[in-house]
Design goal:
The protein is of the alpha/beta class. The protein contains ten helices and nine strands. A five-stranded mixed sheet has the order 3-4-6-5-7, with helices on both faces. Strands 1-2 form a two-stranded parallel sheet. The termini are far apart.
Length: 261
């Protein structure tokens, strides 16, 4: 994984610097500890660093206290290197539905502004419980580089690898639809995946296309979340509000993976 912090992160930062576009890096705590130069480069270029667990653990495989301990440890690490508490969170194990029954409660209790781990809408919405609320900035699998480029036995993931041109077609089509409906477009790019030469080169025409189309706001994730809260407070927009938890127990007679026989 040395390619990620030593080659890919600098390459991606150099590309986005040309267009003065802010990036949000979701960084595991282990990476913060072991690759300080990459972290310094992110901060030096005014990009934000947010919470991504410690080492791609699965929140559903641990107790509430274990999840809280890891969450607080990550907060401390980010605060130490950046001078501020993280505002956002992306589950470190999204492939296993890594938002546990405790995750949203813990994020609200620890004062997070937003989460970006769920898939429940095309635009941000609100997650609320009896202790407060959280802005959810939803993901979409088609806008993740993993589903276009990854085939790696070490990660137990086998898929057909797309060309950068094909992935770019998907990214552009989703952007056009979001633009038409005055919505949100958010790619999830892993530096060691999208930071490879041809794939990174394919990002620049997409950036230029967005700029030329106009009426586009390039924003960090925290800027999006702050904007959502501002338009709610002003009465300009009423969000969808999901009351948490969605369910208090699994559906009767069903376990993960299918019905009980």
């Amino acid at each position: 994984m040395r390619y990620d912090p030593e080659i890919a992160v600098p390459r991606i930062i150099d590309l986005f610097k040309k267009y003065k576009i802010p990036l949000t890096f979701f960084v595991p705590g282990w990476t913060i500890n072991n690759y300080p130069d990459a972290i310094e480069l992110m901060l030096k270029n005014s990009h934000e660093i947010e919470h991504h667990g410690y080492l791609h653990h699965d929140n559903n495989a641990m107790s509430r206290q274990q999840e809280l301990d890891i969450l607080r440890h990550g907060i401390e690490l980010i605060e130490r290197v950046s001078g501020r508490r993280p505002l956002g969170y992306r589950t470190p194990m999204i492939s296993s539905n890594g938002v546990s029954k405790h995750t949203i409660d813990l994020l609200i209790e620890e004062g997070f502004l937003y989460d970006t781990s769920l898939y429940g809408d095309d635009i941000p919405y609100i997650l609320q419980n009896n202790k407060g609320l959280l802005v959810e900035i939803p993901c979409f699998q088609g806008l993740g580089d993993w589903y276009h480029y990854m085939s790696w036995s070490d990660f137990n993931y086998r898929g057909a690898v797309s060309s950068p041109a094909r992935a770019g077609e998907v990214f552009k089509a989703e952007f056009d639809a979001a633009w038409e409906h005055r919505g949100m477009w958010m790619c999830v790019w892993h530096p060691f995946v999208s930071g490879r030469l041809a794939r990174c080169a394919a990002i620049e025409p997409l950036i230029k296309y967005m700029i030329d189309k106009g009426d586009v706001w390039f924003a960090s994730m925290s800027e999006i979340a702050e904007h959502v809260k501002a338009v709610i407070a002003s009465g300009e927009w009423t969000p969808r509000i999901d009351l948490m938890p969605y369910y208090v127990s699994p559906a009767p007679g069903v376990k993960f993976g299918g019905p009980i026989s």
